[in-house]
Amino acid sequence: MACTRRTKTLVSTCVILSGMTNIVCLLYVGWVTNYIANIYIKVPMPLPERKLEGDKRGDTLRIMERLDRLENVVNQHIQETPGRGEESQADKSFSDSSLFAHWGQDLSPENRRVALKMFQYYGYNGYLSDRLSLDRPTSDLRPEGCRNLTYPLNLPQVSIVFIFVNEALSVLLRSIHSAINRTPSHLLKEIILVDDNSSNDELKEKLQDFVSETNSQHPGFIKMVRHAKQEGLIRSRVSGWRAATAPVVALFDAHVEFNVGWAEPILQRIQEDRTRIISPSFDNIKYDTFEIDEYPLSAQGFDWELWCRYLNPPKSWWHKDNKTAPIQSPALIGCFVVDRLYFEEIGLLDEGMEVYGGENVELGIRSSSTTGGSTTGGTILLRDR
Ligand SMILES: *[C@@H]1O[C@H](CO)[C@@H](O)[C@H](O)[C@H]1NC(C)=O
Ligand SMILES: *[C@@H]1O[C@H](CO)[C@@H](O)[C@H](O)[C@H]1NC(C)=O
Ligand SMILES: *[C@@H]1O[C@H](CO)[C@@H](O)[C@H](O)[C@H]1NC(C)=O
């Protein structure tokens, strides 16, 4: 929905993983690390030569150019394949690493080494993340007009599910903090953390301490689900859904930051029609500097390879000339919000899926009324390798 510019996320292109038919959207790149050995890169599509119909201001071209640039950045980053070699390679990537292209020039050699190691482990700048506030401000990137909309007071409550494996603790905590800070408290019933068998020690005691501390003030507010073996993205989401009790469930990666007003437009649309599955519009948290890179509003879909793509919004949306209107999409890239019981009625997600990508299209088929694209507020951290 156009007013749900909620989520800044860590990645944003699609990457095909060899040996699998799965598709990775930036949103998910974190997962890739843990399941995949080899990556090959999708060749970016050539830009269309003309403006698409229904687009008076060349917005389409701008959207595509930006997304294309973004893909190139991600691809370049992935080609470095950090962390896969021996020491000598690590030394080489030390000077070459894209981590230091726009950041960290003034770090001491020792700190650069530490930062690079963390980058190789997490796929994003964990060193910087550890030094940023968990409650950092983000600018309100909602489209014009969203701030003027009002919402009913009796919206349904939501359970937010974060799934992760070996996420940097500070990145996970920032996701949780922003969810708490930027969701009206009467609408946020609980937060569910699904740890898909992380091995990182940070995510054990320290995370448990945070959960216990929070729950001592708000009993039962954070629920922890830990997998005794790695189950993958899809079964992790379903585990989170099983633990949820609010009427609406929001399934998110754990490298996001919510923005103001992200929840209300989504909950309103689900309240109006429970068969809607909603994805907010995402901006990008840059993997190296953690700056927020605003994304154009777009629909979400897939190409002939079932590869996830951001799409130019349909003509009918342009004709409304209303940037706050939701954009109807044939599929969903990544995180989404759904009526808890409706999700069960349509069969959840196929728990036979091992990684991800397939569910984007699957959900579009299961539900005839998925809505993607823009609503207000968040960011995702760009993460890959
Ligand atoms: C939003 O409301 C303000 C104050 O009422 C008004 O000045 C402004 O024009 C409105 N903006 C839009 C896009 O409707
Ligand atoms: C992760 O999985 C392994 C085996 O698959 C298991 O031995 C280990 O205890 C699990 N770790 C956690 C934290 O559950
Ligand atoms: C724009 O779209 C929003 C959200 O659907 C709606 O509430 C609003 O009334 C629309 N504005 C106009 C001028 O049509």
TrEMBL record:
GO terms for biological process: protein O-linked glycosylation. It holds the Pfam family Glycos_transf_2. The chain crosses the membrane at residues 9-31. Keywords: Disulfide bond, Membrane, Transmembrane, Transmembrane helix. SUPFAM superfamilies: Nucleotide-diphospho-sugar transferases. Residues 159-304 form the Glycosyltransferase 2-like domain. GO terms for cellular component: Golgi apparatus. One of its GO terms (molecular function) is polypeptide N-acetylgalactosaminyltransferase activity. It comes from the Eukaryota. Coiled coil: none annotated. This is Glycosyltransferase 2-like domain-containing protein.
